[in-house]
Design goal:
The complex is a heterodimer of chains A (531) and B (314).
Chain A: H1 2-6, H2 10-28, E1 36-40, H3 56-65, E2 67-68, E3 70-72, E4 78-80, E5 83-88, E6 94-99, H4 113-126, H5 128-136, E7 137-144, E8 147-152, H6 159-163, E9 172-173, H7 176-179, E10 196-198, E11 208-213, E12 237-241, H8 246-254, E13 260-261, H9 269-273, E14 278-282, E15 288-294, H10 304-313, H11 316-323, E16 330-331, H12 350-353, H13 357-367, E17 374-379, H14 383-399, E18 403-408, H15 410-416, E19 430-436, H16 463-474, H17 478-494, E20 498-504, E21 507-511, E22 514-515, E23 529-530
Parallel strand pairs in A: 1-12, 1-13, 17-18, 17-19
Antiparallel strand pairs in A: 2-9, 3-4, 5-6, 6-8, 7-8, 10-11, 11-12, 13-21, 14-21, 15-19, 15-20, 16-20, 22-23
Helix pairs in contact in A: 4-5, 10-13, 11-14, 13-14, 16-17
Chain B: H1 2-29, H2 34-39, H3 45-55, H4 61-73, H5 87-122, H6 127-141, H7 144-158, H8 175-209, H9 212-219, H10 224-235, H11 237-253, H12 256-261, H13 267-277, H14 280-308
Helix pairs in contact in B: 1-14, 5-6, 5-8, 5-11, 5-14, 6-8, 7-8, 8-10, 8-11, 9-10, 11-14, 13-14
The chains are: A alpha+beta (531), B mainly alpha (314).
Chain lengths: 531, 314
């Protein structure tokens, strides 16, 4: 080292001395510093096509890089996002949308009506609500660069709710060349017109996703409100760093190595809360809704009275305590639509509110249940659902059912629940899951279907229920929608479609220097800054 | 020797084919369906079937296997069902952290364990020996994740000496950040290998120390250090090298817990995520890759025997 110094020339020493202040000033200058927000997302981003998959993490990725025609505000009302103005014909059949000025894709191309038509068409082939909308669409055309005209075969009350839906699959607008990909094949190019640009070269599946600010994005003037309003990217870069281990994620947040933790496990919340540098709060007003889903095709749950007897045994408090824990993160809710939303009601919900094993036992005896075993699929790799399965097994045993609990991983469960075969050939009787509140906000959710051919696993069948859902889709006023939603709910409880296990709220945790969090059922990263 | 190596390399081909067939059949016959995972809650049975068709999963198993084998012959490990990225690219992205973690762990473990084991053998029955054995039992008994969390709590959260998690490449981000991030995982992971190698070293050296040539060396007046290093340790090296070789192989395929605890994007996590999602091409590609590594390491271990023991000739 000394020898090295000795050989340095005077000029080199001078240059080094001059360089030091320059280097120091460049490090210290906040004006030049790139602002980065490091985020622990709720899951690993495995797939980049939010139309091909319904995974929530792909949906969140979609919100980063794509934009939507309409977007839900925090009152659950669709507001224009890419659309500037729109009109509806007097007969309600012709909808004309005009795009905002200045909308550009990340490759510099302008967003046109043709891009919108192609994107909605692809979405309509995959999404449940999209399929229903396209069932009444006669034509969808782009007469000029900025205009899209949708002509319906009959009036439909959920046009804006459909194209402005907040959760999977969200009708994101992509360039026409990408949106023309077969809906059942993945897209291979990731160009949107949203507030952030996806950096494909830096994507490491299972680890890191990098987004940079889209400098040419033109946000709306309105204040941000859930998915609606001005989307202003306030950081230069957002890095999603996936952590498979919840404790490590917590430690990284406490050590200041990351800024934002999207879904810390509720049992870690007290530790995070005790750190004065960290804020823990519930950011999603709707939370999630637990479900115990019956297979309506197989005995003993091919009998509505047996299903209702099982529901009577399900006490929401017990499920939520076992699956979520801390009561500040859950509440009971006997409406099939999330509590706190416009369609919440109590029609027919007495059966769910019973929560009494003795009453369930009496009800079960009245059905003449013959002891047919109930196979409950228990996904042991998802702690909350595993706990729900155990609680159901215990409740049903106490109510007089013969119960067979079968442990498996979630992947096995997802493939097995699609089987309509008898139990001996791979069939099942009950599985548990949850829906985020935004996905079951109205009767059009597939979870509430009464059509066994096109409905959710479990294949409930009820003509009256389907009639009420169809009527809801055509309803105009909120009062009319509320009345029909109550009718749907009444039928759902009457046939014992599913047990609903309460509403729970997963908090977010973030360093106190993170500002601008948006209250919403979906985590957005615009409007957020790191100070 | 060259003929032996050639023969061993040739033998890898049938081994790899058997592994490929076994892995393929095992995955196809086990429950779970990537199409159902992709389709999600909203899907109808028709949607799931259409996705299966797109993924080529509806074809007869023999056709699927033949297609995959055809790809393999051309050096194509396939494409991930979920990320749509080539499996080879995913492996390349992940191989560096796993390899360097394995390397740092085994180097550190050998540097600590071999002297410890030799010392324990030399002082067999003494408190030094008992301490080494106690450490070995402890090293085997403490689960990796417990040790990991304890080290993170003390060295990262309390003392703030080292980062909690992550990986930094020495090639792109510098040697300093690399060592800062690799130290804790290396310490965590090496404990069990220190225990394993120290025990093996002790047992081998004790055995050798009773040999006639050791007594002869001592009778010739050689120093105890020379007796230990030149005569005892070298002759005890074959089983030690075997354990070290197996250790490296185990490390490459079995660091999933450490990689999860320290959030290192390595191969262990890749295989675990792929299994949970039933991403068949990744699982198949990785198991083939791990098998290949095992075969190569076994070959290297066998070849090293002839360097350590002149009596062994191929």
């Amino acid at each position: 080292m000394l020898l090295g110094m000795g050989t340095m020339t005077r000029r080199a020493v001078l240059a080094a001395a001059l360089a030091v202040p320059v280097a120091v000033s460049s490090i210290a200058s906040p004006a030049n510093a790139e602002t980065v927000m490091r985020v622990i997302p709720h899951a690993d981003l495995k797939n980049l096509d939010p139309i091909w998959t319904t995974a929530y993490i792909s949906r969140n990725h979609g919100y980063m890089i794509y934009d939507t025609l309409f977007a839900m505000d925090d009152n659950f009302v669709p507001q224009p996002q890419m659309v500037d103005t729109w009109t509806t014909s007097d007969d309600g059949l012709v909808w004309t949308f005009v795009l905002r000025d200045g909308l550009k894709f990340h490759d510099g191309a302008p967003v046109t009506g043709e891009d919108v038509v192609a994107s909605l068409t692809r979405w309509g082939a995959r999404d449940g609500m999209g399929q229903q909308l396209f069932g009444v669409i006669d034509t969808l055309e782009a007469p000029d660069e900025k205009t899209v005209v949708m002509t319906l075969k009959e009036p439909y009350g959920l046009v804006l709710e459909s194209i402005g839906k907040i959760s999977s699959n969200v009708p994101f607008i992509m360039p026409k060349r990408i949106a023309e990909t077969d809906p059942f094949e993945q897209i291979t190019e990731y160009v949107g017109s949203g507030p952030f640009v996806f950096q494909a070269d830096e994507w490491v599946p299972g680890s890191t996703v990098v987004y940079t600010k889209f400098e040419d994005y033109v946000p709306r003037d309105e204040p941000v409100s859930a998915a609606a309003g001005g989307k202003i990217a306030k950081v230069d870069k957002v890095i999603w760093q996936y952590f498979p281990d919840a404790t490590t994620a917590m430690n990284a947040l406490m050590a200041g190595e990351v800024d934002f933790y999207e879904q810390p496990a509720p049992d870690l919340a007290p530790i995070l809360s005790s750190n004065p540098d960290i804020t823990v709060e519930v950011n999603d007003p709707l939370g999630g809704i637990g479900f115990a889903r019956f297979n309506h095709l197989l005995p003993p749950f091919d009998d509505a009275d047996v299903r209702r007897a099982a529901i009577m045994a399900m006490k929401q408090e017990d499920y939520l305590a076992a699956g979520v824990g801390d009561p500040q993160f859950w509440k009971t809710c006997y409406s099939v639509f999330p509590c706190g939303t416009p369609l919440e009601n109590d029609a027919g919900s007495d059966v769910m509110a019973t929560g009494d094993v003795a009453a369930a036992k009496t009800a079960l005896e009245a059905t003449g249940y013959d002891g047919t075993p109930v196979v409950i699929m228990q996904p042991t790799d998802i702690p909350m659902l595993s706990a729900f399965s155990l609680v159901t097994a215990e409740k049903l045993r106490n109510a007089g059912f013969t119960v067979q609990l079968e442990a498996m991983d979630w992947s096995t469960l997802t493939s097995r629940r699609a089987l309509r075969d008898p139990v001996g050939e791979g069939g099942w009787n009950i599985f548990h899951t949850w829906w985020i509140g935004a996905d079951v906000i109205d009767p059009m959710a597939i979870a509430f279907s009464g059509n066994p051919d096109k409905g959710w696993f479990g294949w409930a069948e009820d003509a009256e229920l389907e009639e009420a859902r169809t009527a809801f889709a055509k309803a105009g006023s909120l009062e009319e929608k509320q009345a029909l939603a109550a009718k749907v709910q009444e039928r759902l409880w009457a046939i014992g479609a599913s047990g609903q296990l309460g509403q729970f709220f997963t908090p977010v945790a973030y360093r106190n220097n993170v500002k601008g969090l948006i209250k919403s059922p979906v985590q957005f990263f615009w409007n957020m800054s790191v100070e | 020797m060259l003929f032996y190596i050639f023969k061993r390399v040739l033998m890898t081909i049938p081994v790899m084919i058997v592994v490929a067939l076994f892995v393929f059949m095992m995955l196809r016959l086990s429950p779970g369906d990537p199409a159902a995972v992709i389709a999600g809650d909203y899907a109808t049975a028709e949607d799931v079937e259409r996705i299966r068709e797109q993924l080529g999963l509806s074809e007869p198993i023999v056709v699927q296997f033949t297609k995959w084998l055809g790809q393999l012959v051309q050096g194509d490990l396939g494409t991930s069902i979920f990320s749509n990225k080539p499996v080879a690219e995913l492996i390349v992205q992940r191989i560096e952290p796993t390899m360097l973690l394995a390397l740092s762990t085994i180097v550190f473990a050998v540097l600590v364990a071999v002297p410890l084991g030799t010392l324990a053998a030399y002082r067999a029955g003494s408190w030094v020996d008992r301490f080494v054995m106690l450490f070995s039992v402890g090293g085997f008994s403490v689960p990796v994740f417990v040790l990991g969390y304890v080290l993170i709590y003390i060295l990262s959260l309390k003392l703030k000496w080292l980062p909690v998690q992550g990986y930094r490449s020495p090639f792109t981000e510098g040697i300093g950040p690399f060592f800062a991030h690799i130290t804790l995982p290396t310490l965590t992971l090496s404990v069990i290998f220190i225990a394993l190698i120290a025990r093996m070293t002790r047992a081998s050296v004790i055995e050798v120390l009773e040999e006639d040539y050791v007594r002869t060396a001592r009778a010739k007046g050689q120093s105890e250090f020379k007796v230990l290093m030149r005569h005892a340790l070298r002759n005890a090296a074959v089983p030690i090298i075997t354990v070290i070789g197996i250790g490296i192989a185990l490390l490459i395929g079995g660091v999933v817990v450490t990689e999860s605890v320290y959030n290192i994007p390595g191969l262990g996590r890749l295989v675990l995520d792929a299994v949970l999602a039933r991403d068949y091409p990744i699982i198949q590609g990785l198991i083939l890759f791990f098998s290949f590594i095992y075969i190569v390491l076994n070959l290297l271990i066998d070849l090293s025997y002839s360097l350590l023991d002149p009596r062994i000739r191929y």
